[in-house]
Amino acid sequence: MSRIVFRNANVVDGVNPVRPRSTVVVEGDRIALVSNEGSAAGASIDPATREIDLRGRTLMPGLVSCHFHTTFHDLVPGEAPALQILHPPATYTILAQRNLGIALEAGVTSIVCSSTFESIDSSLKNAIDQAWIAGPRMLCGSHELMATADIASGASRNYWLELGNCGLVRTTDGASGFRKIVREEIKQGAEVIKLSMSSGHNAGPTEERSCLTKEELAAAVAAAHDRGALVRAHTASKRSILDCAQAGVDIIDHADRMDEECIEAVLKSGSTVVPSLFYMMRVLEFMDSGALDGKIPAGASTMFQRTLASMREDSAQLRSFLPEVDAAGVKLVCGDDFGTVFLQHGEYASELVFYVKEVGIPPKDVLRWATRNGADLFANGDEFGAVEEGKLADLLVVDGDPLSDIACLEDATKLHAVLKGGVFESERTALSA
Q1: Which are the contacts of 381, defined by CB distance < 8 A and separation ≥ 6?
Q2: Which of 109, 269, 329, 360 is the residue whose CA sits 20 to 30 A from 87?
Q3: Is the Cβ–Cβ distance between 248 and 218 less than 8 Å?
Q4: CATH number of 63-346
């Protein structure tokens, strides 16, 4: 069994107090010891042991990204082809494998996927489990399931939807319809069922309604939970947030119009919230730059302006309210629409920096969102997400202290190593005794 001894480590996670000058022993795929005793590993070192003096560098858990689109690359939201399939599934599988490699290299050792198609996520997860490719731990996504009237079609710019190319989307109606397609998605390997519950969050202006009836929502949730799958939902409206919490949806995405009543409902349900606010701020920055001045077709200008105004209102509401949501004890996690033109794969740590420096969330809280809270979504989530004895050795070696300046996670040159299950997946800087 392989053995790694990290000495003089500054052990940081979002759960325990900081433990400077610690010794951490990894045996096989797990953490065997965390101690402040410099000699805790023993004087006699087995030849198979690798000793590493971290010289005060931070040793922390791997990051967990909880809104991950494996197939997104330079996607332009709002453009007609955005969620359609423009290439064969094999091409998107290669792209998704690239994105998984980018994530692992950036210190993301686990992901919870959002919408996908053609079983791409489950195929890649199988390849990772077989050690054919490298990649994070995965919870695989489904298509985005919608009610019939909630996907635009018939207009010339969406004509291919009439031809059957719905891309990431599947539509149905009624409790029996949603029950059936949820079961079909699980049969194809989905572990997280994605529902579209409201407009908004750059999917048109937010309308204060829920897209699915309570009967449809309840049927989808029951069908997923009966087979051990999670349910996540795109929500922006207050009504959709409340409906999802009351129905037992596991992951509430965006939650743009969350308020005190929503906090109470989410705390009661135990749902996890993915605010994904960073993406909206990037979009608004881009729009304010004037890059699209004069480029919006006249026919689309009114809807574009309505969407933009809604996004400004919703993002301001969530940005000001998020510290209260965190302080109330709502389980929050990190993850966003990486792979769009506004937010590229690889920028995951920038989201953490944004929440600390722009929204005012304490850095320890954000680290907990990005590690322990994210791990809790996995069936074996108690096995990783913190630097503790007995847990899987998903670890990052970082030059800097993210609790003092979380921006150190944003600097690729300071991420010296990434371990997943005790194996060095990346070692940018040679670490020696």
Answers
A1: 375
A2: 109
A3: no
A4: 3.20.20.140
CATH superfamily of 3-61+384-427: Urease, subunit C, domain 1 (2.30.40.10)
What's the rounded Cα separation, in Å, for the pair 222 and 217?
9
> Rounded to 5 degrees, what are φ and ψ at 4?
-125, 130
Neighbouring residues of 403: CB distance < 8 A, sequence distance ≥ 6: 12, 18, 363, 364, 367
Domain spans of the chain, in order of start: 3-61+384-427, 63-346
Question: Is 190's pLDDT higher than 90?
Answer: yes
What sign results for the dihedral spanned by CA atoms 120, 125, 130, 133?
positive
CA dihedral 39, 42, 45, 51 (to 10 degrees): -30
Of the pLDDT bands very low, low, confident and very high (cuts 50, 70, 90), residue 165 is low
Please tell me if the domain spanning 3-61+384-427 has the same topology as the one spanning 63-346: no
Extract long-range pairs of 398-401: CB within 8 Å, 24+ residues apart.
398/57, 398/58, 398/59, 398/60, 399/57, 399/58, 400/57, 400/58, 401/10, 401/12, 401/58
pLDDT at residue 362 tops 80 = yes
pTM for this model (two decimals): 0.93
Instruction: Specify the amino acid at residue 7.
Output: R
How does pLDDT run across 401-433, given as a tens digit for each residue? 999 999 999 999 999 999 999 999 998 876 765
pLDDT at position 264, please?
97
Contact 103, 64 (CB under 8 A): no
